[in-house]
Amino acid sequence: MTRRYALYCVLTCAILGCSFTVSRSIVDYPILTGQALRYCLASVALFALAMRQKSRIHPSGRELVRLGLVAATGLVLFNVLLLFALRHADPAVIGTIVGVSPLLLALLGPLQERRRPAPRLLLAAAVVVGGAVLVQHNQGEHDAAGLLAAVGVLCCEAAFSLLAAPLLPRLGAVRVSAWSTALAVPMLLLALPLTGERPRMPSGKEAAALAFLGLVLTVVAFVFWYTGVAKLGVDRAGVYLALVPVFALVTTALVDRAAPDALKVSGVLLVGAGLALSAARVRQDAWKAHWRRSAATSSTPGAGRG
């Protein structure tokens, strides 16, 4: 069962990593306008999926506030800060800083749930972060404003999972994704005057890319990711985020037909080692849970008799 949810996290990272090549098609399209169109399309599809579910659950007022915070930080502010950061720092610098998110989630996820962080998961997160840094090792130019904005992007990346985690048990991955994307649309439109961005109609190629980002990257990836977070926990799911630059590297190498250098390959191997360490922790916890259930069953009077 745990493997299935781990696979959801891996697939999410694969979709996100591969989406960078698709995003090349909209590099000249207004960023916030594109995100608003993407999330609008995604929210329609997600609410359609929610309507197909048997249970009719609606968020409470307090849950709506938290969903608004997910949208404001993990979706809107993330994109605004990323836009600002790209003007002051190279993508490699930003990617390296945001690559620390597995370690941040491994630390803050358990603290949010009022439990101690698992030392093995912290070590695994540190290993995958080191690997992700090597994968994105290209040095780039930056200034203080760019670094500060990149740290803000990192915080928003973590908030996307941390703020949503308490909502998942009752609302589920589909509803959390639907409400957060829907709430992000008006926020993005209100942010347009602050950036001076001028909306325009997308070309055919840009529309196809936005459709992919809305229906695949947002609908599929968000639901997969939140399902994994709900079942594995923020800390365990967060370790898999180090796979995003790995999949991006592989996709870029295939599309551009350019082999990665030895340092990037060593980074990929290091990410794999960290994930193996994390998986060992999951297997150990599963074995302990099975042992406790077996002990409880054997100690029950009359257990196992016909």
Can you offer a commentary on this structure?
Helix 5 packs across helix 7 and helix 6 packs antiparallel against helix 12. The model is unreliable at 286-306 (pLDDT under 50). The chain contains twelve helices and no strands. The protein has helices at 2-23, 31-52, 61-88, 91-98, 101-112, 119-135, 144-162, 168-195, 204-232, 234-238, 243-256, 262-298. It is globular and about 45 Å long. It has 306 residues and is mostly helical.
Topology:
Elements lengths: L1 H22 L7 H22 L8 H28 L2 H8 L2 H12 L6 H17 L8 H19 L5 H28 L8 H29 L1 H5 L4 H14 L5 H37 L8
Helix pairs in contact: 1-9, 1-11, 2-8, 2-9, 3-7, 3-8, 4-7, 5-6, 5-7, 6-12, 8-9
Helical content class: over 70%
Shape: globular
| CA(first)-CA(last) distance | 29 Å
H/E series, N to C? HHHHHHHHHHHH
Based on helices, strands and strand pairing, what is the structural class?
mainly alpha
Rg to the nearest angstrom? 20 Å
